[in-house]
Structures are given as C-alpha cells and as structure tokens.
Specification:
CATH class of the largest domain: Alpha Beta
Largest sheet: 4 strands, parallel
Distance between the termini: 47 Å
Number of domains: 2
CATH architecture of the largest domain: 3-Layer(aba) Sandwich
Radius of gyration: 20 Å
Structural class: alpha/beta
C-alpha cells in the first residue's frame, strides 16, 4: 500500500498502481514522546504527530510513502525519516520524494515530466494504467448546492472539521480544506487521450495554481474562490507555523475588503484551535449581517 504526504503530487500515478491508500493518516490525539527529541519546533504541527506514529509502527502496513518536495515540512520530514531509518531508530515503510518544478518555463515542465515518468517506472505503472487513472479521476460526484449561506474558510489547511462545525452551528455552510483534502486536491481535469499520459499529468502539475511553491497569485485565487462558492461570509485563518504564506496576507485582506462580505482575519493561530478560535468564529458569524 502507498500513502502520500504533501501537496502537488501526481496522484493519478499513485492511483494507477491500484494500491493507493490515500493521504498519510494523522492521529490528532497522538501522544508525542520520542518525536519531540528528533524534530525542531518550526515544523508544521502535523509533522511531530506523524513522526511519532511512524516510530510507534502505526504505518507499518504501508509499503511506501511518497513525500512532496513542493512543501517545506513534507520534504524535511522525508530527510528526517531517511536518516532515522539509516540509524536504525525507526522502521516502517520506504520513504520516497517527488520533485516538481513550477517555474513557468519549458525546462521546468520538462523536468516535471521526467520526474512523473521516473515515479511511474519505479511503481511499475504503464501508460495504459495511467490513462485509465486519468479517466477515472474525471468521474467525480456532481457538486450539490448548500442549504445555508456559504462561509468560506481560507488560509491554512485545517486538521479536521472542528472549524466547520463552529460555522455550521452558526447557521452557515462551511467550505474549506482540511489537511487531508489539501493533499488530495486534484485541481483542473487532466486532459486524457493525448497519447502521453505522463506528460499530461506533468503539465497539470506544472500549471497548478496552489501549493507553497506555486507562482499563482494567492489573492486572485481567494477572489476566485469567493466567487465560485458564492460565499456570503469569509474567514481567513492562518496558523503560527504557516510563515511562507504570510507575505500574501495584505493582498488577501484587500480582496476581502473589496468583496464587501463580512469577514474575519485570524493570524498566528493554533492549528488545534485551542486558542479560542471556535468562540471567535461563533461570535463573528452570529453577528454577521448578510
């Protein structure tokens, strides 16, 4: 079985193996003991939980985990695991890393295509299996319209649906990504029937607008999501460790202000929402004028 960790991965390659188990599961209630001694504090909050789970043998049922170099924590986690396994301090599945080049130029696309081909070959996936996976990924369930006004939760991927529950309790329909959903984000449909499915997957990855290494305009992406979801309120929630994205905050604030929507900006927050975030969201939405 194969799991993935991080965004901007060629998920269709993993699905084509027939052994893809989904994103690496993170036990939010995991008691972190030995992992704290191995890992510095500036990792994303999911990392010590996953490292402790790895050390405890929770992932021993997996054959390998594919990490994304597009995410700082995911790539550093990969190197930690490799070193700990080399020293015999942990066992568990084989760790692999997938590189992606997102600079908008031909050489970056060529490199990404090469990496997709290498991963497919490593996992024993041929073009027929890749094409079938692309076709299957197009067959998603139709979107449904929410029964309540939408509140978009943007910013850092959430640990689970705890913020969603607070939004629902206030009478809104929450839309926002958890960490697992972020790691599984597919984006636009990949073109099928090209005769070169690996190149089609690489082109899809290279043009992606999301992810830490993307060259996409974060404020434009927020504006597009507000329009697409027909949001009536918005929450921009960023955690303390999400330092790479803080530079986009001024532009994102302007988008929210220009939208005219009731909005709440929450920065440097606790990923587990132990800092009163639930109460703040409830108070904000209860008083929101829509």
């Amino acid at each position: 079985m194969i799991a993935s960790a991080g965004p901007n991965l060629p998920l269709d390659v993993l699905r084509a193996t027939g052994a893809y188990a989904g994103p690496l599961p993170i036990d939010l209630d995991k008691n972190v003991t030995t992992a704290d001694a191995w890992m510095e504090s500036k990792f994303a909050p999911w990392a010590p939980l996953a490292l402790q789970a790895w050390a405890d043998g929770d992932y021993d049922h997996l054959d390998c985990v594919i990490f994304s170099r597009a995410d700082d924590t995911a790539q550093r986690f990969y190197y930690y695991i490799c070193e700990l396994q080399r020293r015999g301090l942990v066992g568990g599945p084989k760790a692999l890393i997938f590189d992606i080049a997102m600079i908008p130029r031909a050489s970056s696309l060529e490199r990404t295509t090469q990496k997709v081909r290498e991963l497919a070959e490593l996992l024993g996936v041929d073009d027929v299996a890749l094409e079938n996976a692309i076709t299957s990924s197009k067959q998603s369930a139709p979107a449904t319209s929410p029964d309540h006004p939408v509140c978009l939760i943007a910013g850092s991927p959430m640990p689970d649906h705890r913020l969603h529950i607070a939004v629902q309790a206030a009478g809104f329909a929450p839309i926002g990504q958890t960490l697992a959903e972020y790691w599984c984000e597919g984006g636009p449909v990949i073109e099928g029937g090209t005769g070169d499915p690996a190149a089609a997957i690489a082109c899809h990855l290279h043009e992606g607008a999301t992810g830490p290494r993307s060259f996409g305009d974060r404020s434009a992406l927020l504006r597009e999501r507000l329009a697409r979801t027909q949001a009536r309120a918005a929450i921009l929630w960023r955690i303390e460790e999400d330092e790479a994205q803080v530079w986009h905050l001024p532009a994102e604030r302007r988008v929210l202000e220009e939208s005219g929507l009731p909005h709440l900006v929450m920065t440097r927050r606790d990923w587990f929402a132990r800092d009163g975030a639930i109460e703040e969201i409830s108070q904000f939405l209860t008083g929101a004028d829509i």
